[in-house]
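Reply to dn_fold:

You asked what the input looked like. This is it:
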Amino acid sequence: MIVALCMAATATTAAAQRVWTLDECVAYACEHNTQVMQQRLSVEDARIQLNTSQYSRLPDLNASVGQSFNFGRGQGRNGVTEDRSSANTSFGISTSVPLFTGLRIPNQVRADRENVRAAEQTLEASRRELTITITAYYLNALNYRGRMDVAAQKVALDSMQVETARALVEQGKKAESELYQAQAELASSHLQLTTAEGEYRRTLLDLSQAINWEGAEGQPVPAPIDESEDRELEMRYIDDASWIGLGVSNHPTVLAATHQLKGSEFQHKVARSAYFPTLGFSAGYSNSFFHSYGDDNLPFGEQMKLNGSEYISLSLQIPLFNRLGTRNNVRRAKLAITNRQLALDETRRTLRKQIEQAQIDATNARARLRSALEAEKANEMACHYEREKYSAGKSTIYTLSQAEQNLVAARNDVVQARCELALRLRILKYYY
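and this is what came back:
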């Protein structure tokens, strides 16, 4: 009968729904979360910027085509000004390559590479934060699922209690008011079960919205947490505190801040490169076709042979004075380094505080679970003896009802404590 009631209590929420593990919920959320997707775009943007910096070492290639018409007095092909209209078609191709830029290009490449790494670590931090959020919704749903199961068990017990009270009344051992009170208790248990079912459905909706679920087959139903995994996490993160230092240094937020600091150091070198001369090489080829109206003009092929020209050049640019712009850019780059260093130090301090607090919270959650289990065991024994006393006619339905309510409260405390410990352990896992 208990099994049938439990199945009936969950039929309205589990029908046509697929059971999801926590890892499946997290993976789906990471694929569909807007902030995570935006962070992926930031990573891609940083990679494109790095690619641009890397290819800035290569030569460029440009082609040009021009057409001009001259009317009235103008200079002819022989340089004499005369009254004659003419047309000139020109085209050319040129290339240039930076030979030395004061190490600006290699330092810019290094800075952009650090920016890519910082963006990747920021993406990983966003995924971890989202994991904790989804875990909280997931375990909250399991918490109310456990409360619903406890309420279903209470309905089953009260149903049996009504039958027991009816038998005792028929035997003359109890007054008929005992039966009415047992039926009232059963009705109250049904109300608690209905409330628990409603709360469970609400938590399923919260979980679905948190992972941006838009499937047609119904809301995801969370699978129970593997308690063996919790015990392993307890030994790794609660009983052993040696991992905290490594957790601080390897956390994505710290790594991102470290890469941002390195990037600002390379940007400082980029700013200093403006003090140095730059050397560039260029080469090109040009040709033209000239047509003077009213004169005999050389054929196109002949002009192509005569009018072509090539050039190569080296250019050295020596900065002398640019209104203190370079000096101020270098100063600003130094300030950026100091700012990034302060941000890194603050990130480390904040993260260590969060880890230590999370470890204390997990330790307290484990202690609460142990106390809740002990209280549940004690209330089970008290309820068992109270039930025997009632069957023997030595207790009242009110006293038995109080014992059963205490047992229900103790079981709900166990469910909540177990879910809270699971959440605290996975928060510690987030920091590792």
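The first helix runs from residue 2 to 14.
Hope that clears it up.
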